[in-house]
Amino acid sequence: MQLHQSTWAEIDDYLKQSKGIIVPIGSTEQHGPNGLLGTDALCPEIIAKHAGDASGILVGPTFNVGIAQHHMGFSGTITLRPSTMIAAMYDWVASLRKHGFEHIYWFNGHGGNTATINAAFAEIYAEGSLDTQGTNSPPLKLQLRNWWELSGIIKLCEKMYPEGHGSHATPSEVAVTYYGYPDAVKDVEMSPKIAPNGPIHDAADYRRRFPDGRIGSNPAQANGEDGKIIVEACSKGLIEDFGKFVAG
Ligand code: NI
């Protein structure tokens, strides 16, 4: 079930049987020569949509811009400051909470977001923890889960791509987007075949070290058939993990 494709009355009915929602969260940033700028937002969105359609779990709109300042050397990247992202997440949660949602599961597609998501959780929880007057609000539970951390997924991706999986613009994430958007598949020669590894500093330094945007990967291996296998495995894992989260 998708919030954007539902009416307010349908959300009213959903809240009578569940107080839980999945919110995909990602980034808009360069993903190498053949990866889509939306990769980190599209991966959790595609997986969550699959899980929501299969299970009836409500999936919110995707929070699709995150912490990507180190990718700003590449055209099309859009970034938030951490303070902006925390403020925006605070208001998303406050809005959902106002309607009665108590279990908000942030399903993340971008490693660079995790510190800021956890800081946003601390800001949101502080409101209740520091309130000396007590509160009549219902209990609120927040969860952060990166899609690749779902049970068995890292092993599956390593088995699928024993060489050149890397850490940015990986064949697994590119495969997920190619499954979701077959018309957006790109055929690009990689040179070198496997990108260099190294540390990440600011945007200019990133562009110098990783001139085509990849880190340690060969995403030319990606294809939609692999993406389908990854999405189906993640969707199953997501339904299980969300169920455990809501059950507490
Ligand atoms: Ni990515």
Instruction: Say which molecules are bound, naming each kind only once.
Output: nickel (II) ion
Would you identify the CATH H-level superfamily? Creatininase
Q: Assign the structural class, choosing from mainly alpha, mainly beta, alpha/beta, alpha+beta, or little secondary structure.
A: mainly alpha
General shape:
globular
- The portion of residues assigned to helices is 40-55%
User: Please, how many domains?
Assistant: 1
The major pleated sheet works out as: 3 strands, parallel
> What is the CATH architecture annotation?
3-Layer(aba) Sandwich
Order of helices and strands: HEHHEHEHHHH
Separate helix tally: 8
Please tally the β strands and state the result. Answer: 3
CATH class: Alpha Beta
Average predicted local confidence, pLDDT: 96
How big is the Rg? 19 Å
Give the topology, please:
Blueprint: H1 8-17, E1 20-25, H2 39-55, H3 82-98, E2 103-108, H4 114-129, E3 141-146, H5 153-160, H6 171-180, H7 203-209, H8 224-247
Parallel strand pairs: 1-2, 2-3
The structure holds nickel (II) ion (NI).
